[in-house]
Every structure is written in C-alpha cells, then in structure tokens.
Amino acid sequence: MNSGYPKWAPYVFVTPFVAVFAVFMAYPMLYSVVLSLQQTFGPKRSQFVFLDNFSYLLTDPLFWKAMWNTFVFAAGSVFIQLPLSLGLAMLLNHPKVRGRIFFRLIFFAPALVGTVFIAIMFGLMFSRDGLINFTFHGLFAGFDPEFPWLERFVMGSLILAALWQFVGFNMIYFLAALQNVSKDLTEAAMVDGAGPWPRFLNVTIPAIRPVASFVVLLSLIGSFQLFELAWVLLNNSGGPNDQGLTVVMYLYQSGFINGKLGYASAIGWVLAVLLMCFALIQHRVGRAGEES
Amino acid sequence: MPRWFRLIFLLVPRESLSVGGWIICGLALTSSIAVLSWPIPQHQGLEFWIFSKGHGDLYETTLTQWNSEKDPKVDMSLLSNEALRQRMLASFLTDTPAADLMEVERNFVPQAFTGPIEDVGFVDLTDRLKQEGIYEQLNEPSFAPWTSRGRIFGLPHDVHPMMLVYRADVFEAAGIDLTQVKTWDEFARVVRPLVKDRNGDGITDYVIGMWATGAFRDHLEALLLQAGGALFDEHDQMQINTEVNAHVLATLVSWMVGPDRIAVDAPEFDAPANKMRLDGRVIAALMPDWLGGVWQMDMPGLSGKVKVMPMPAWEPGGRRTSVWGGTMLGIAKTTEDLESTWAFAKHLYLSEEVAEGLYRSNMIISPVKSFWDRPFYDEPVVYFSGQPYGRLYIELAPDVPIRTSSPFNTYAKDRVANALFRLKEYALETKQYSPDELMDEAHRQLEAAERLVRRQVEQNVFLRSEP
Q1: Fewer Cβ atoms within 10 Å of its own Cβ: the N or the C terminal residue of chain A?
Q2: Hey, what CATH topology would domain A53-113+154-291 get?
Q3: Is residue A82 within 8 Å of residue A215, measured between CB atoms?
Q4: Mean of the pLDDT values across residues A101-116?
Q5: Which residues does chain B have with pLDDT short of 70?
C-alpha cells in the first residue's frame, strides 16, 4: 500500500535520535572499550596495555572489597527493602486502613528528597552526638552515648538511609500491581476456603510477579550504582577501612582522583557485564515463572 | 510562502503532522538555529581561575590596579575547588581550553604529575625562578608540593606551618601550664587528668581532636612528617613501612583507645565537632595558620579563650611544627602570552600588599621571607588571647618539613589511614594499648598498605620507565 510518504521519510525522522545516540552514547561506549585496554595521560600519551587493566582488577583487593560491599548493599535492598515495600503496599491497599492516601504520600515523600540532602541528614543523625545516640542513650542507660555508627555500622547505616529513601518509592510499584490483582480470583480463593497466607502465596504473588521482578531488577541496578549517598555520608571517602567503598565509588576514585581512566573504564565494563547478567537472569526467571 | 519553506513539505508531507506538531517542530528548529548562531564569547586578555572566595576578595584591589595600568587585562573567575580540578584535568588530559593562570590546592596538583614530565600541563618555572632570584626569596619547603622530578611547576602561595591550639581557659583553670610541654609523650601524660566528665553530662570528655578515619588523613600525614617519617621521600620514593611511621601509628592508637585515651573524633569543618569545641569537650587541636582564620569565622565563641603553642615534638629536641594544606599559582602551557602571565603571577604573589591582606583576612603567612619582619605579623590577635599569631607561625616557618608531590600520595594516605583504623581495631580486640605492644602489628599493617601502594605505582607505565 502506498502511504504517500517518500521511502526515505522514516530515516529523516530517526536521524536526530541516531545522531545524538551515536555521538553521546555509542561513541563514548566504544571508546571506553578502547580506553579499558590502554593507559593514558592526555590525548598525546596513550599506551596499549591490552588486558593489563583487567588482570590488575582481578587481583586488586580494593576492587573485590568494593564488589563485596556493593553486594551486601544490594542484598540489603532486595531482602529488606523490597519485602518492607510490599508489606507497606499491602497495608495501604487494604480498604479498612484509614487515611490511606495520606500515608501513601508520607511514605513516598522521602523519594522526592535529594540523595545528597539525605546523606547529610543521616550523617548528622549517625554522628557521635547525633539523634540516634541521643535517643538510644535516653532509652537505654547503658548504651554508649558516643557509639561510632559510621565506624562500626557503615553498611548498615547506608542500607538504613537507602531504605528510608526508597521504601516508599518501591511501595508505589507494588501498590499499582496489587490494585490490578483480580478480585474474582481472590474471592474465588476465599470461597474455596483459602486463608490469607495461601491467598497471598497462590493468588497475589503470581499476579504481581512481573512487577516484582521488575522492581527487583531496578533495585539491583540502583544498588550497584550506589555512589552519592555513600560518598557524602562517608565524607568523600570509602569510610573507615573502606567499609563503605562501592564499585562506582572505586571507579570514580580510580578515574577522577587517581587519574587512571583506563582502569576506571575496565571497572565500568565489569560492572556493565555484571548488570547485564542480572538482567538476563531476571528475564529467564520471569519467563520461567510465566510459563509455569 | 517562500520556496525553501515548501521544500520542507516535500520532505515531510503537510498532513503527516498536526498543527501543534508543526508548531513544535518550528520552535525546535528556530531555537536550534538561535543556539547555533549565538556568538561564543571570545576571551579578552588573560584568564585567571581561583577556588577561594577569600583569595578572590583579597586580589580584587591588586587586579583592578593591574588592569588599569597594564595590558593584557586579567579576568579572574571563582570556581569551586572541585570544578577547578575537573577543568584543569580536562584541559591537561584532553586539550580543552583552560585559564592562563590557575590557583590549585595541594591535594589536586599531583594529578597533573602522573605522566611524563614533558607532558605536565603547567609551565616549568624552575629556570625562571632561579634566574630571577625568586627561588631564594621564598621559603624553600614551600616549593616541594609543586616540584616533580626536580622541576618546579608553581609559585607557592603559603607556608602553612602548624601549631597546637588549646583552650587556655580550661587548662589554666586546671592549673596546667601547657607551654612547658615539649614532647607528645609529655603532652599525653600532662593532659590525662583532664579526661573526665568535665561538664557533668555523664559523658567522658577527652582532650584532642584526632581519630582513625579518612577525615584525619591530613592530620596523620602532618604527624608523620613531623616525626621525620612520611609516605614518600623528597624524591617521591615510597617509604611507608618504616620504624618512624609505625611508632607514630602505634602512639596515635594508644591515644584513641585504652586506659590512656586522650583523643576524640572531632574533624575540622564539621558542625557537631565545632559544637564539641565550643562546649569545651575538645580542648586541643592541630592548627595550621589558615585554620586560625576558619576558626575565627566558624567559632567566634572561642575568642579570647584559645592560645597556640609549638606542637610537642616526637622526641626531645625534635621538630615542633609540621605542615597541612597549600596552594600554588600555576601557568597553563596553553597560555598564548607567557611573559605577561608570568609578570602578573609575580606581581600578585610577591606583592607586600597581598601578603598583608592574606594575613589580615585569612591568617595565612606569606612564603616571601623578606616580609616576615613586617610589624603586622607582630600585632596581638584578640581571638588567640592577644598572642602575636603571625610571629609565632613565622618562627616555625623555616622548619616546615618537605612534602612529596607524588601522584600516589592521596592513595597512600588513604591506605595508611586504613592501616591506622585496623591497628585501632586490633588494639580493641587484643586489649593491647601501649605503643610498644602495638609496634609489630603497626608494621604488619603498614606493610600491607605499602604492598597496595607499590602495586598502584608499578602499574603506571609512564612513571615506571622514569628514574
């Protein structure tokens, strides 16, 4: 069928996007591959070191420490934050809860606050004479009034701060999914005598599975990109003994503080491959779930 | 309708977009053309980047005077420290435009030294400084952070000797004459009776702000330098696991944990820590000259209550000062008028007027030795209980230790700060708190730090081949 448009019209429409994508995405990505195989000092000095950056990375204790810390943070996000988000969503989806809309807003509100501000706020709360020590010392007389949270509880502090920021944000996804759970199915299960727990396992969970797996993937990617929160909370460092050093923080330190752009590119590519693997696993798991 | 306009409809049929769509396209096209045709402002004269507003205010008069008398004119821009660092590196590493002159902070300059010496983005000033006699006019240790492989790349802005600041009112009330204290061991012993709940809030109060976290890595470096240790020597050769460094680490840990604890976590530029100082919960700290200006601004409540004295030495008769911070004025190689830029740099940094302003506004003493006898340095400072603050620092200036300009220094400082933290944890676990008991573990931790730094140094293919 003749649409009346010249054959090349679609190309004209996509050209601006392709041009912008090529210049600002594709070229930098490809160049970062080249960079990861080099050591450079300015445009005039570069030396191919081939896989040297990658082999250095594999034996770099700091990289593995950063990777471990990031995994711990991601695990905290997935196993603490998401169940809490789901729980909150179920609570605020219940018709008998009064002021649901108000509480939805309250729980979502921290997601509107800037990460740097949150980091500063939690930094003050976790400081030696901060609100947390003040409260605990007031409640429990034996509690050390100067407990060094940001020395002894670095990852816990980060997880807690992220929890406060994102629990409401993820709750919104679950809330939207819960509102789409078929009432017919739930009622049929009730008629069949299913209690709340079997209904949750056999009706609610399968119904929200696509959204849940999307939220898990989003949380994982977000966790692996953790930077500003930790960077500001830990005073522009990885914290005492690098207990809060994350992969992206290490990438930044390597590239922009130590000037090793090639090494930073190598870290970036390892992170990218890792996230691709997560996405692939999530895709497979999601599809297996749908098929079953 | 103009003919060219009709061409658009040849390309995209008129019916393919709604009226709104065509308006949006028109606006997008017009704004794109407007942006592309906007003239890029061409810079006139010399460009000068600074990161400190205090410096900027100070230079204003000199700059106005220069611009009214000389050509080319100088245009000064205030950037944040981080922005200046990024733009400096972007310029050196990717050939993007940079200022002719840049004031750069000490922690950022070594990043320009990670490549071959001929590729450093700053102009090598060594020969000029020596031929024009400027090298002899300035305090020699002040050149060290801007010197790489024997070549000097910046004019020093300061000296930044360090002293010990203490709450004179608290110590006098306790009957302790701190000025008689000559060594750190003596200091720890003398101040220990003050480690108690001094304000009756049920919490033990300690004496000095010093801790095993990243925020104190500059303190740590200063204390290592004072003791005669450091992470790199003046030739940028690594020297991390040494007897001196291990002794400093072990001693610091003995101040942080255990029965002889005197130190507390109270970093500078930190509101809760400032409150601790104002409340008298921290009554001593290490103070480079510039920090005096910061304290006056941030904690006016301490006016007349604090005094400075030379730092206690690590051994009898040892060095009573150290160094923390620093700024240089560098000329970018990309400058098109090197002679004028150099003339302005000298005019600014060797000016007595600027030196006096620098002291009066920021409490920073000049590196120009011939100004050191000026009477303004002898004026009593009310904040420091009427002490001649400038004179006290000048007396220590020649003794400031030499610092490295190694590009790996920041990395090494972080690793050694971590070693200190692990040593503190070890002390808590094993309940061994005395420096002698901690020495072996201090060596082990420093050895681990040294291994990491060595790997980092050896990976750099550009510096590997240089002597």
Answers
A1: N
A2: MetI-like fold (1.10.3720)
A3: yes
A4: 93
A5: 1-12, 464-467
